[in-house]
Write a structure and sequence with these properties.
- By secondary structure, the protein is mostly helical.
- It has two domains: 107 residues, Serine Threonine Protein Phosphatase 5, Tetratricopeptide repeat (Alpha Horseshoe); 92 residues, Tetratricopeptide repeat domain (Serine Threonine Protein Phosphatase 5, Tetratricopeptide repeat, Alpha Horseshoe).
- A two-stranded antiparallel sheet has the order 1-2.
- A hairpin with a 7-residue loop joins strand 1 and strand 2.
C-alpha cells in the first residue's frame, strides 16, 4: 500500500493531520448514482485512463486543487466506478470545506473499495468537521474492522474519543499503538501525554 498526501486537517489535541493513501489503484463495482461528472456507458469504461488521470491528480492535491479536481472529474468520466478517484475527489472537496460533497465522494469510495480503510478514515474526518462525533467514531470503527490497528484510523478514533470525553476500554491500547508506531512526533507526544492523563485518573 502506498500512502501519500494529507487527506484533511482537523483541529486536534496534537494539531496534526491524518495521512492517508491517495495513489491506490484499486477498483470495484457499485450501483449507479449521481456525481459531478459525465459517466460513460459500461462498454466505454476506460479504467487504465482513469488510473493515469488519478495518479496525475494525486500529485496536484494540496498545491493545485483546481487542477486536481479537473483531472479527477475527467477520470470519473472515463470510469465512474474507479474508487480511488472518488476518494481523492472527496479529499479535494474536504480541503475546500465542501463537507456534503466530500462525504458523498467518500461514500462512493467506501462502497467501491470494500477492503481498504482510507475512504472510511476520510469519511470520519469529514464527520468530525461537521460536528457529527458519533458518525465519525462509527466510521473509524469501520476502518479498523477492515484493517485492525491501521495507524491513521487509530489516531483518529483515539483523538475523537479524547476530544469527546468518551470512555472506551480500548483507548489505552490505541494510545500505545500511536506512541510506539507513530511516524509524527506531534502524534507520539500527544499519545504519551494523553496516556499519562488517563492513568492519572
Amino acid at each position: 500500500m502506498t500512502r501519500g498526501v494529507m487527506s484533511a486537517r482537523v483541529a486536534a489535541a496534537a494539531a496534526a493531520a491524518m495521512v492517508v493513501a491517495r495513489t491506490l489503484l484499486l477498483g470495484g463495482c457499485a450501483g449507479p448514482g449521481s456525481g459531478p461528472y459525465e459517466p460513460r456507458g459500461e462498454a466505454q469504461r476506460n479504467t487504465t485512463r482513469a488510473e493515469a488521470l488519478n495518479r496525475d491528480a494525486a500529485e496536484l492535491i494540496g498545491s493545485d486543487d483546481e487542477g486536481a479536481e479537473r483531472l479527477l472529474r475527467e477520470a470519473l468520466t472515463e470510469d465512474l466506478f474507479f474508487g480511488p478517484a472518488h476518494n481523492n475527489l472527496g479529499v479535494v472537496f474536504l480541503g475546500q470545506g465542501k463537507l456534503y460533497e466530500a462525504a458523498a465522494e467518500f461514500e462512493w469510495a467506501r462502497k467501491l473499495m470494500p477492503g481498504h480503510p482510507d475512504p472510511r478514515v476520510n469519511l470520519a474526518l469529514c464527520m468530525e468537521q461537521a460536528g457529527r462525533v458519533d458518525d465519525a467514531l462509527a466510521s473509524y470503527e469501520a476502518a479498523l474492522h477492515v484493517w485492525p490497528e491501521y495507524l491513521p484510523a487509530v489516531q483518529g478514533i483515539a483523538r475523537a474519543t479524547v476530544r469527546a470525553r468518551r470512555e472506551d476500554p480500548r483507548l489505552a491500547r490505541w494510545l500505545e499503538v500511536i506512541a510506539v508506531q507513530g511516524e509524527d512526533e506531534g502524534w507520539v507526544r500527544w499519545a504519551r501525554e494523553s496516556g499519562a492523563v488517563a492513568k492519572g485518573h
